[in-house]
């Protein structure tokens, strides 16, 4: 059984189909059709809901963290122990919520299909910021698409509703809601079981290891932003899933003198602060990783584990010399991330083995790290090419070089010939041009609807040139650039 709050209503579910999304649960099972299906792939934001989760600050203060999610990519099992808020829950005692009023008064809606999603994104923005600036408003709404109004009135609604906000019914009930969430906090393995399909929800790494050993055919579910597409887009059935999002040990970020250890189930939003503090380019790239709804849900371990050749984080992590800790039963092994990827969607992971955490070296002033993403749109788009460069110079000579790319091969990988051309050579135009030519030895990219092979290779070479130019003129702020 799993338990969660539907606004303030306690829901206990056991026999639901584990392949059921929150979107369809709201529309078909509890009669709340305000949440819309636009794309069923996490691109349009029409299905946005907000999930509240109990958090404890470093000073021991308990509060509810509200985050926007795409309900079309969220399986119901991930709600275990949380609070689900949909657009119907905002109106209170016959009065519209302040974000709804702002959308009306600023004329932020026309056909209205996308409006519930915008309202929920604005609600989450209001909850998480006292006075959001223009950049925060854009970030909060980048995952919501509108074909009617244009975005100016919606951004005006964001300013009106979030600046000078007043307490609402959720603030008034916070103490009560915290108590109710504590009362339903999971204490044992949860389960949804429809007879022919099941989803198990462990709470510890040990329980996860035991369950995965017992069900090696199970699909591991973290954020679900990739896995859920098999259900919503390809109409496949997932007979057994194991949801890892309630394993607290895998949602921690531990800081040591020489490294960060990031739990594989840590959301990309939660990774941002730690990675941005060490590597600002990594932080910039995370701002451009899909949408806020996806970053709130997707995990760093999932972005690695799905072994996509166009995943944004692996090239950066490979260039940084990151490692992963793989767990199987009581056995753990540490593997360089670059050795995890073998072929297209093929990895070094063994049966019943899972990524427990990612080890990222702390930043060093001697190493010059930069990252760049080439995509057709600035926000909410997949890379055509993603590049990461990390070199160390001694007296103007390249003493160490790690160069990695995504989108250039069947796997994210280092550019060995390019690195060889750089190593031991003076870091100047001539060396960079030799290294650019060597990229043609490292990669034979494919052509697809995102870019041609010629465009990809030329982009990769130009990014290396760009890296060199920026290091000569560090005042230029053009990192993580989009090319159209």
UniProtKB/TrEMBL annotation:
InterPro entries: 2Fe-2S-bd, 2Fe-2S-bd_dom_sf, 2Fe-2S_ferredoxin-like_sf, 2Fe-2S_ferredoxin-type, 2Fe2S_fd_BS, Ald_Oxase/xanthine_DH-like, Beta-grasp_dom_sf, CO_DH_flav_C
PROSITE patterns found in the cross-reference section: 2FE2S_FER_1, 2FE2S_FER_2, FAD_PCMH
2Fe-2S ferredoxin-type domain mapped to chain residues: 1-90
Pfam families: CO_deh_flav_C, FAD_binding_5, Fer2, Fer2_2
NCBIfam families linked to this entry: xanthine_xdhA
Alphabetized UniProt keyword annotations: FAD, Flavoprotein, Iron, Metal-binding, Oxidoreductase
All residue ranges annotated as the FAD-binding PCMH-type domain in the record: 192-365
Entry protein name: Xanthine dehydrogenase small subunit
